Amino acid sequence: MKTLVLRLASLLAIFMMCGIQSPVQAQDNKIYTSNVDKSPIFNGEIGSEVDYIIDHYRRPADAPEKVMNVEIAFVVEKNGKLSNIEIKGHQHLTSKGVEERPVPPSVKKEVMRILTTMPTWTPATKNGKVVRYKIEFFVSVMDRETKAKEARDMAEAREKKIRESKASGKVYDITDTPPSFHGGDAALISWIKANIKYPAKAKEKGVTGRVLVTFIVEIDGSLTDIKVSRNTAPEFKAEFEAEAIRLVKAMPAWNPARNTGVVVRYRYPCPIVFK
Question: C or N terminus of the chain, fewer CB within 10 Å?
């Protein structure tokens, strides 16, 4: 047994002297691309690395003003730092086959600057141990002016859709995707319970009621045309209705309805229960 241990120690020494990794070291330094318990993550949120690159990109003077599509690959090391960084043009299919759109050297240099100075990542883990992991993704980089113009164009397009939708006057009550409160029905119920104000006199007398309020969820998520459709309260009807309408007016914007992929206006019935 002692002889076997001595032989193993001698082999390990030879590996180290010759710069050869032992089988354990080789496995430890393996670069994964899948089959891990947890993939590496930046800033605690999936996809936030793309936002970081876009936010920190400064267009070089000799770079074109148009949006540049860049493919990025790197290894997230065990300490969360990046290595083996590769930056190349986005590949696309042409009549000649798959071709790479070239990226100006100055743009590559700027993206490299961002990657080499970004905060450390949370590394990947496998079987309770941190491991090296290779990531590849695509990002469209643009300067602040281009980004601001894109935001303005999107806002203008959104406003145009709202005007067109309101001008048409069409309001749906059945769609492929109905409108929803952020967080779903459970979040809506919780919000109502947290914000409702029971009419004092009705509460004193133990009067309960149910007021059905309808409203239009506009394509920007705002609520309009709020009105009472039904009121089952035996007393204090005006008080219950006033509180139900106040409550709906105080709601944050909703997720609008969609029909065949297009955002549309929707008449939504919402029961407000007092009990």
Answer: N
* Residues in Cβ contact with 172 at an 8 Å cutoff, skipping those fewer than 6 apart: 257, 259, 264, 265, 266, 267
Q: Quickly count: other Cβ atoms within 10 Å of residue 20's Cβ.
A: 12
Question: How remote is the C-alpha of 231 from its chain's centroid?
Answer: 40
Query: Whole-angstrom Cα distance, residue 151 to residue 165?
Result: 21
Express each pLDDT in 16-57 by its tens digit.
555 444 454 455 789 999 999 999 999 888 889 988 998 899
Judge contact between 220 and 196, C-beta under 8 A. no
Cβ-based neighbours of 56, under 8 Å, separated by 6 or more:
114, 118
- Interval 49-76 mean pLDDT: 88
What is the helix (H) or strand (E) element at residue 212, kind and residue range? strand 209-217
Name the residue with tokens 């793309």: 50
